[in-house]
Amino acid sequence: MDGTGWATRERLLEIVRFCAVGLGTFLLDEGALILLHGPARLPLAVATALAYTLAALLNFVLSRQWVFEQASNGARPRTALVRYVIVVVIGLLITAALVPALQAIGVDYRIGKVLVSGLVGIANYFAFPMWVFRGSGEDAEPVAAADGSAGAVAPATVPGEPPAVLGEPAEATGAP
């Protein structure tokens, strides 16, 4: 691995962090689902939604502060939270619909939850740095250019990459 291209050391560390946070919050989600649907006897769809929401809150904090820290630079927390809620609601609707649907065709709800969570997790890996935690021209905070003057922030073009400062020479930003 030469550090150029998509599979850089930083990208691989980001994937490891994403998987660690995802696994931890998935275990919280799965454990809460089992407790809420089992001993608490809540309906499966309600238990699924509550467990998912609890895990999603923890996932937001860890993803923004640790996993996609570079992509989060310059993005306003409120904007990121609104975008995150949109992605989570989409994932919640998919999860709450597919887990019972899989159960209806004979798949144990715990196995269904694992399958659906895997699909939602893959989609989230791309949505988080490209949209949720990425600063844009209107919501990014200005940063200084290489010469010390104020520069405009350009959105990151590669998930997990820090945004470039407009007006900097390509060598200063690492851009081609």
Based on the model shown, name its key terms.
176 residues; mainly alpha; two-stranded antiparallel ribbon; disordered C terminus; GtrA_DPMS_TM
Structure commentary:
With 176 residues, the chain is mainly alpha-helical. Helices cover 64% and strands 2% of the residues. It contains six helices and two strands, in the order H-H-H-H-H-E-E-H. It has a two-stranded antiparallel ribbon. A hairpin with a 5-residue loop joins strand 1 (143-144) and strand 2 (150-151). The longest helix is centred in the N-terminal third of the chain and has 29 residues, at 9-37. The protein is elongated. Belongs to the GtrA family. InterPro entries: GtrA_CellWall_Glycosyl (IPR051401), GtrA_DPMS_TM (IPR007267). It is a multi-pass membrane protein. Keywords: Membrane, Transmembrane, Transmembrane helix.
Short description:
The protein is mainly α and 176 residues long. It is built from six helices and two strands, in the order αααααββα. The protein has one domain (9-137).
What would you call the shape? elongated
Task: Name the helicity range.
Answer: 55-70%
Q: Which stretches of 5+ consecutive residues score pLDDT under 50?
A: 138-176
Helix-strand category: mainly alpha
Count of runs of 4 or more consecutive helical residues = 6
Please provide the ordered H/E string of secondary-structure elements. Answer: HHHHHEEH
Main beta sheet: 2 strands, antiparallel
Strand order of the largest sheet: 1-2
Supply Rg: 19 Å
**DSSP E strands, number:** 2
Q: Overall mean pLDDT score?
A: 78
β-strand percent reads under 5%
For the record, the count of structural domains works out to 1
Q: Report how far apart the termini are.
A: 19 Å
